[in-house]
Design brief:
With 732 residues, this protein is α/β, with parallel strands linked by helices. Helices cover 48% and strands 9% of the residues.
Length: 732
């Protein structure tokens, strides 16, 4: 996914054009403008190179020349990654001036950071105490690092977080005009998460709020302040290491700490070459494989234990993840509908980015009525996974329902072929929206191209043959803009389809490329954070007011529940999730949203298999797992249906239950599962028959109504003709 060329193939292995008819043939080999500044997402081979951390993360993001030299002073405020940053800097010869005590660590929360700096710098009346100590330490600091970790319990808005960070930077600049200020985000989860949200949702919403606020701060201040920037520890840990944490899944493992130390020293301290960073990267990758096997042993041991009473507010360790077999506490608790909202007679409209495409295909394959799968006219059907920024999605609703037409051509297909504003297409889109009972909308992009004259935003990049540098510009859609677009989409659906259900999701697929300077991975993290922060604030506004709206955490499941969610082998682009990870999301969606026969036990068994595969990718079963995944991928691609995920090596017969006692005979268990599978297949067949019958009845009803309207029109014309013939002209 990117603002450059989000081609159909770019959405990868889980797309097709099945059920879509009357697609126009390609006329020319057109393409989108790419320019000379585009940076593409690295693939697996790129990330395995010794110089990957420098080339794929630091280059273009951190200073071209290290801003400090050995012997100069360093202050690190915040927590999470403050220790490895300090270790890396002091190991390269800097002097740590960070005051001792909890105050410096509490600065990981922007509100507290601003408050402490305001006391230390803004109010100089204090002659002793923590504020005075910090003021004295700052007087010798040449490099100041702000390691943000969390937001306050009051959950401030995005704008408030940005204001706190900007003001903190302003105060630091006032105290140290020549010091370099580096902003960083700790990837480490907090020990506890706020109540009222699943653990993953709480973590991702907090980290996204901080990451998007840091990004906005840098874009505001960096053009005016050449000695301020971002250190991408968050992205390095999340993309280089599959197993960056210990068994508690929140304390950095030694190899991840060493990588942060080496990366920071290389980026900021003069005289530290890239050779040391390359060596640290090679060592970290080797250690990561060992860590994977250790985590696998922890998970296997936990599977044979009786789960204890679990603190649901504590961040789950590896054992707790095993015991939370359906990821209920981790991802879904409190977000799912209390009862199914999709039945055989439900009309589903799904479009946007990858999840909408995947779920529409999956629901269609099990017999539900996905209208956008059976339409070949509306753009939301023909480009169902290519309308990915919030402006583009909003445009479709405004065009269809309120006939708002952009001033210039903005819409193009996967091959840069121009889509016009055809009235028949608009009416077809309106017809689909008017019939929609459930809207599934996936957003995925914050980077856009726009027309500088009109201010209007393109769906995608500008076609190369039309690109005009004087008016076609690139920019980031701010968090406030995305939030406003979500509000507008919600208002339109509620105006025209007040009883419809709305399901919003965020695509986990990173950018294919970026026009921002530097790393595509770093740009992608910011892009997703902006959208996730907007979604979080949007749902917070409507909590308790609209019970027909839901957030499905596909993003959190892919990135938070799996150690290796993305592709395998040398051809992996490190962007498209593994098929089994995506199909797990499909199964969970079916379980909670559809009138299905799936039960919690089925989801738990499915998750057991997914976790087995996830760990097996670093174990002796790797080749067997890859073989099965490849077979399932072919079935998904060629038969247009979700394969039945069968166990590769279910835990040794499953004779021993989680409490250590002998379980049922495996043959009985297998027969029961086979019977349950037959019941589900029969239910699917019945739903297909019911949906087909309802569709035929609806067609017949529409045809009958049309015929009745035709007859009435003929009758009115005949009556009018008779009146005209009988009319007597008045005398002159």
């Amino acid at each position: 996914m990117s603002a450059i060329d989000d081609s159909k193939a770019d959405e990868g292995e889980l797309q097709d054009s099945e059920d879509q008819i009357d697609k126009p043939a390609k006329k020319k080999n057109r393409s989108f403008f790419r320019g000379e500044t585009a940076t593409f997402h690295p693939n697996r081979i790129d990330l395995e190179q010794p110089d990957a951390v420098w080339n794929c993360f630091l280059l273009g993001i951190t200073p071209t020349d290290p801003p400090v030299a050995p012997g100069q002073g360093l202050i690190v405020l915040g927590d999470g990654i403050a220790a490895p940053i300090t270790a890396g800097a002091t190991g390269a010869g800097l002097k740590s001036l960070t005051p001792n005590g909890p105050e410096a660590r509490e600065c990981g929360i922007p509100e507290r950071l601003r408050r402490l700096l305001d006391k230390a710098i803004g109010d100089k009346r204090a002659k002793s105490g923590k504020a005075a100590d910090l003021r004295a330490a700052l007087s010798g600091a040449d490099l100041i690092v702000l390691c943000l970790t969390d937001r306050s319990a009051e959950r401030p808005s995005h704008a408030e977080i940005v204001e706190d960070i900007v003001e903190s930077c302003r105060l630091l600049r006032k105290a140290r005009p020549d010091a370099y200020i580096a902003l960083a985000l700790s990837p480490c989860p907090p020990p506890r998460v706020p109540a009222g949200q699943p653990q993953a949702a709480a973590l991702f919403s907090a980290k996204s709020a901080l990451r998007s606020a840091i990004d906005e701060t840098c874009r505001k201040l960096a053009p005016l302040d050449g000695r301020l920037g971002y250190f991408p520890a968050f992205e390095i840990v999340g993309n280089i290491c599959n197993y960056p944490y210990g068994a508690d899944r929140r304390s950095l493992a030694d190899h991840a700490r060493s990588l942060i130390e080496a990366a920071f020293a290389c980026a900021y301290v003069a005289g530290v070459g890239t050779e040391a960073l390359a060596a640290a990267h090679v060592a970290a990758r080797a250690a990561d494989i060992v860590a994977g096997n250790e985590m696998r042993a922890v998970a296997e041991a936990a599977a044979g234990q009786t789960p204890p009473a679990i603190d649901t507010a504590a961040w789950p360790g590896e054992a707790e993840m095993v015991w939370d077999r359906g990821l209920h506490r981790f991802a879904f608790d409190g977000l799912m509908p209390a009862r199914p909202v999709i039945g055989a007679d439900t009309t589903i409209i799904a479009f946007g980015s990858c999840f909408a495409s995947n779920i529409s295909r999956y629901l269609n394959s099990i017999g539900y009525n996905v209208a956008t799968r059976r339409d070949g006219v509306a753009y939301i059907s023909r480009m169902g996974d290519g309308i990915v920024n919030t402006y583009a999605i909003r445009q479709q609703f405004e065009w269809a329902w309120e006939n708002r037409k952009p001033q210039i051509p903005l819409w193009h297909d996967y091959d840069a072929e121009e889509f016009g504003y055809d009235e028949n297409v608009r009416l077809r889109t309106k017809e689909l929206f008017d019939a929609g009972d459930v809207f599934i909308i996936t957003i995925g992009l914050s980077e856009v191209w726009y027309d500088d004259v009109t201010g209007e935003v393109f769906w995608r990049a500008v076609p190369a043959e039309r690109f005009d540098p004087s008016r076609h510009k690139f920019r980031i859609v701010e968090q406030a803009e995305s939030l406003a677009n979500l509000e507008a989409i919600h208002a339109l659906i509620r105006k025209y389809r007040p009883d419809a259900k709305i399901v919003l999701t965020l695509s986990p697929i990173p950018l294919m490329a970026t026009f921002r300077p530097g790393s595509c991975i770093v740009a992608s993290a910011a892009s997703k954070a902006i959208l996730r922060s907007a979604l979080d604030e949007f749902f917070a506004r409507h909590r308790g007011q609209d019970d027909g709206m839901f957030y499905f955490p596909a993003y959190e499941v892919i990135l938070g529940a799996f150690h290796q969610p993305f592709g395998l082998g040398e051809t992996s682009d490190m962007r498209h999730p593994m098929l089994h990870a995506i199909l797990f999301n499909m199964k969970v969606f079916e379980r909670y949203f559809c009138d299905t026969q799936l039960k919690d036990e089925d989801i738990a068994d499915e998750m057991d298999e997914m976790r087995y595969r996830d760990f097996a990718l670093v174990g002796p079963d790797r080749e067997a797992v890859i073989s099965v995944i490849s077979t399932e991928k072919v079935e998904w691609r060629t038969k247009y249906k979700g394969p039945t995920i069968e166990g590769v090596a279910r835990r040794k017969n499953r004779r021993i239950g989680p409490d250590g006692t002998m379980g049922e005979d495996p043959a009985i268990v297998a027969r029961r599962k086979q019977e349950a599978k037959a019941e589900r297949e029969a239910a699917v067949a019945q739903r297909k028959d019911e949906a087909s019958a309802k569709r035929l009845a609806a067609v017949a009803e529409r045809e009958a109504a049309s015929e009745a309207r035709r007859r009435e029109a003929d009758q009115r014309r005949q009556e009018a003709a008779a009146l005209r013939a009988a009319r007597v002209r008045p005398p002159r």
